[in-house]
Amino acid sequence: MVRVRFNAQELQNDLTGKLIQFVNVKVLRDGKITWDHLWVRDGKIIDGAAVFYDEKRKADIEVDCEGYILSPGFIDIQINGGFGVDFSTLPSTDMEYQRGVEKVSRGLLSHGVTSFAPTVITSPPEVYARVLPLLHRRDGSAKGAAILGKSSCNSNLVFIYTYTLKDLLFRINCSSSMLSFIFSSFYVLYSL
Predict the structure, then answer these.
(1) CA 171 to chain CA centroid, nearest Å
(2) Gene3D superfamilies in the record, alphabetically (predicted)?
(3) Are 93 and 52 contacting, i.e. CB atoms less than 8 angstroms apart?
(4) Are 81 and 131 within one domain?
């Protein structure tokens, strides 16, 4: 068994198949932060009692967390940018855009976010056409959070509407008197 501190360089290596035991650590159990040991194999938390009683083995690596709290990574399912980067801003080059996405990936990881879904706000069609192909899935690492890629939404369902408010209200069968009321109310509010 190898014993290391929580920030040891050895933990940056490929740990596939290794049984890791985190000791001197606080975890959230039953709604409370408590001192405990935590066992992990192949990136998944496993039952330490089963390892002890069923497998009858010790950890390959014991990690001293020095009293820190250990928790699963956060997943940001909608982020429009961060760290000075806006995912909806057209880049001058694809490489510049990729560097911006990587900057967000690194920044998020430093705050406990291990994966994220970059989101483009409502934008002109040319923005979508240019940036969506650049937001592809990427695995996370010690260098940055995983990029979950584009959403599962069908990109053929993105429409650019050119209707005016009046057109839309007519389409939902608003009467002329209702339209007059809506527009006069809007004018009063806008004038204030």
Answers:
(1) 38
(2) Metal-dependent hydrolases (3.20.20.140)
(3) no
(4) yes
Least confident of 11-20, 102-111, 156-165: 156-165
- Two tokens, residue 26: 């606080």
**Consecutive H or E run containing 100:** helix 94-109
Laid out side by side, the sheet with 19-29 consists of 2-5, 61-64, 19-29, 32-41, 44-46
**Residue 77 confidence (pLDDT) above 80:** yes
User: Same domain, yes or no, for 129 and 152?
Assistant: yes
Distances (CA, A) of 136 to 12, 125, 139: 24, 18, 10
Q: Note whether 107 and 99 are within 8 A (CB).
A: no
Q: What is the pTM of this model?
A: 0.63
Name 20's bridge partners.
Answer: 40, 61
Residue 116's domain spans which residues? 74-157
Residue 186 burial by CB count (10 A; 0-12/13-18/19+): exposed, middle or buried?
exposed
What lies within 8 Å, CB to CB, of 184 at 6+ separation is none
One domain for residues 59 and 12:
yes
- Do 124 and 170 sit in the same domain of this protein? no
91 in Cβ contact with 100 (< 8 Å): yes
One domain, residues 53 and 103: no
Within a domain: residue 79? Answer: yes
Would residue 69 count as lying in a domain?
A: no
